[in-house]
Design goal:
This protein is of the alpha+beta class and about 675 residues long. It contains 26 helices and 22 strands. The strands form 5 sheets. Strands 12, 13, 14, 15, 16, 17 and 18 form a 7-stranded antiparallel sheet that branches. A 5-stranded mixed sheet has the order 2-11-10-3-9. Strands 5-4-7-8 form a 4-stranded antiparallel sheet. A hairpin with a 6-residue loop joins strand 17 and strand 18. The termini are far apart. About 35% of the residues are buried.
């Protein structure tokens, strides 16, 4: 078959499958078969780039990272809605509408708690997408929106210009999986799906947005230069016929029925794939809407009914402490079962000791419970008049309830954390961090494989990784002989890593990559570092008192000493192989921007640090020099505005002693006050 014809056939077939899966939620082929078709299209377009089209499914994976988002002035403002909080306020809204409208029919729909965006199509092709911003001006997030598979890249039957409005959200199940993954990787957790969606949509790297599993639902036509619609419902039905994912709605003429629908939506909020923070009531007739108009802030023809958090009494039967994968001890109240927001609640988060002390929550107390943000059960207050005699204030344990290691309070005072290097509760997170790229860099040992190894009972400490046998690994799900051999080779290679990688892999608080490199170069061996005193450690630049104390306490722990002994036994190197850090660029701060042909940014940064420089991610008046590669963006412009020295890749190579240009001239550009300074 002709390549062009086959590419078009594949695009149509894949777009159809995307619609079935992401809009209708009715997949018609297996993931394997879909991936096979997509791979065929990728191969075709790779061999014939001229066949790539803007609406191709291959263009959804995320393109080149952006330096910043461009501003977009909305042709039609993306207004917010006036909130109402009670049936009385809703009736007042209805009364105002009926004073001016002859035909009153309301469209009632759930209010999705996400991030509002406008999608723009020209002659059926998706050309731009922007956030709401302040309603008048938003940000261009087109590349990130392309990664949302329920957004069609091309539509049929809508010639001319079409702008539609929708709400981008992160499905609840996706949010749970994302936070589980972030916890394993030791990253901060997102507070709720809305924050996760907003953070994902505003990623400068579209590949990150593509991996976040965002979705969208449309609820309005902002502009169309085609025939006008008579009602909002008709316009939504038309959008649905164009294969958009559209919000479900009900039509009611009586306010009592409107309230019933609002309460029905509220009672069923747990069944929606997205979070909702209310229900929207809108006049359906578009001509009547125009006659009512709008205030400076809100349209007069719509309102958002906000659900009050449902509160009920319960009794604290116990307080238990859970140890998270990052070692944080989190207290949880076990409460008598109570029905809230559609589910039965038996536990309520207590956050930390300060929260318990502030509310004076005790075992046996009668308490008022609600769901924070309609998601997480929490205790609002204690009904002190019902407190039984003999209750005592609660205090967090002094040792980890899982492994018995001492606990410490974080420097910011927010969390109490287990210090055990071999704590079983932290095993998944510790192993994932240990194997990560910036730590021991064990290729093929990602979170999924770590989880499989732990669940199979094959690994209980990092040292156990080096005792694995080929047949054990090959027997895991999605692993085979070749994968097992590759993983064993990567493990063997990691034994020869520099001490700094091992030190960072231990996950000692406040000991990041930079501190690990400094300590490794200074002491040379792990044994010498383990025997260092507070005075010796704090005498080192960049090692403060808190970091020094964390090191001393970590090395004094029996679990830490056992882990070190086990790693020595399996042959992991504990010696620094790094060259001594030079001081050619000491006292200077560099920023890298754009693409370098000879190095990645990470490699270039390491080269600079080896010469004593500091590497920063942002330009300020304290920046000494910006290294500008190809396609340098906003950082280069800021450096020029501030008068910061800028060098290109040729000059950068000279600075490293690897190019043909004169290093002294480059140094003079960076250090104009000291042009002759050059040390080997």
């Amino acid at each position: 078959m002709d390549e062009k014809l086959r590419a078009e056939q594949l695009r149509q077939e894949l777009n159809e499958h995307n619609y079935n899966y992401y809009v209708l939620d009715r997949p018609t082929i297996s993931d394997f078969e879909y991936d096979r078709l997509l791979r065929e299209l990728e191969d075709l377009e790779g061999a014939h780039p001229e066949l790539i089209t803007p609406d191709s499914p291959t263009q959804r994976v995320g393109g080149q990272a952006l330096d910043a988002f461009r501003q977009v002035v909305h042709q039609v403002p993306l207004q917010s809605l006036q909130d109402v909080f009670s049936p009385e306020e809703l009736r007042d809204f209805d009364h105002r509408v009926r004073e001016h409208a002859d035909r009153v029919e309301y469209l009632v729909e759930p209010k999705v708690d996400g991030l509002s965006v406008a999608l723009e199509y020209q002659d059926g092709l998706f050309v731009r997408g922007a956030t709401r911003g302040d309603g008048a001006v938003g940000e261009d997030v087109t590349e990130n929106l392309r990664t949302i598979r329920s957004i069609p890249m091309r539509i049929e039957g809508a010639p001319g210009r079409l702008i539609v409005r929708g709400e981008v959200y992160m499905p609840k199940k996706t949010f749970e999986r994302l936070n589980e993954k972030r916890e394993l990787e030791g990253k901060p957790l997102f507070a709720n799906p809305r924050n996760a969606a907003a953070g994902s949509l505003r990623q400068l790297n579209p590949k990150i947005a593509a991996a976040r599993g965002l979705d969208i639902v449309l609820f309005n036509i902002q502009f169309w230069d085609g025939p006008a619609f008579e009602t909002d419902g008709a316009s939504l039905d038309w959008l649905k016929s164009l294969r958009f994912k559209v919000i479900d709605y009900a039509l009611e003429t009586d306010m009592a029925r409107v309230q019933e629908e609002i309460f029905r939506i509220g009672d069923g909020r747990e069944d929606y794939p997205f979070d909702i923070d209310g229900a929207v009531v809108k006049l359906n007739d578009l001509t009547e809407r125009a006659s009512l108009g709008e205030t400076a802030k809100f349209p007069r023809w719509a309102a958002a009914y906000k659900y009050p958090p449902e509160q009920k009494q319960s009794v604290v039967q116990d307080i238990v402490v859970q140890v998270g994968r990052t070692g944080v001890l989190t207290p949880k109240a076990v409460v008598a079962p109570v029905r809230l927001a559609g589910t039965t609640v038996t536990n309520a988060t207590l956050h930390n000791q300060d929260y318990i002390t502030e509310k004076d929550i005790r075992i046996g107390d009668t308490v008022i419970v609600q769901k924070a943000g309609e998601i997480i059960p929490e205790i609002v207050r204690v009904v002190t008049e019902k407190r039984p005699e003999g209750t005592v204030p609660y205090r967090m344990p002094a040792v980890c309830p899982v492994c018995g290691a001492p606990v410490v309070r974080d420097e910011d005072g927010a969390h109490i954390r287990c210090t055990g290097a071999e704590c079983p509760a932290q095993l998944l997170r510790n192993l994932t961090h240990f194997a990560s790229r910036d730590a021991m860099d064990i290729e093929g040992l990602g979170p999924a494989v770590v989880e499989s190894l732990v669940h199979a009972g094959l690994v209980k400490t990092p040292a156990d990784l080096y005792r694995l046998r080929e047949e054990q690994i090959a027997g895991l799900d999605r692993m085979g002989k070749k994968s097992a051999q590759n993983l064993l080779a990567a493990l063997e290679k990691s034994k020869r890593n520099d001490l700094s990688r091992l030190l960072f892999a231990f996950g000692i608080r406040q000991v990041g990559q930079k501190a690990a490199k400094v300590l490794s170069a200074r002491f040379g061996t792990l044994d010498k570092l383990a025997g260092a005193s507070m005075e010796e450690l704090t005498a080192i630049d960049d090692i403060g008192e808190i970091t020094a104390r964390n090191l001393v306490e970590w090395f004094a722990s029996p679990q830490s000493r056992h882990l070190i002994a086990q790693l020595k036994e399996v042959g992991v190197s504990m010696v620094s192989t790094a060259q001594p850090v030079g001081d050619l660029l000491s006292g200077l701060t560099f920023v890298l921007t754009g693409e370098l042909s000879a190095f990645s940014r990470k490699e270039a940064g390491a080269k600079l640090e080896a010469l004593g420089a500091k590497v920063s991610g942002s330009v300020s008046r304290k920046t000494s020099c910006v290294v500008a590669g190809e396609a340098a963006g906003s950082k280069l412009r800021k450096a020029q505005e501030l008068g910061v020295a800028v060098i290109d890749e040729t000059q950068f190579l000279a600075l490293l002693g690897e190019g043909d240009a004169d290093r002294a001239q480059v140094l003079a550009l960076i250090r104009p006050e000291d042009p002759d300074r050059e040390k080997a």
